[in-house]
Amino acid sequence: MRRCIGCYESKPQSTLMRLTYDGSAFIADTDGRNEGRGIYLCRNRECIEKSFKRKAWNRICRSRADNEEIMRAIDAALNEN
Hints:
CATH topology: Hypothetical Cytosolic Protein, Chain: A
Oligomer: single chain
Structural class: alpha+beta
């Protein structure tokens, strides 16, 4: 079970997309083996929007996050699965 950063609900890991943050960039982690901080997010638009509204990305990287970079990583994760 993992917690989505958008809706804060715990769900099975297989139902969520995983992104990683290595200190400098957000990366789609389609195989679950990337190094860095693992970030889980539901595969729906509502949770993606909530994660930005709640500024979850800024908390994860402990500074101002680049929303365009995050959206590229999210798009890559959605396209892979």
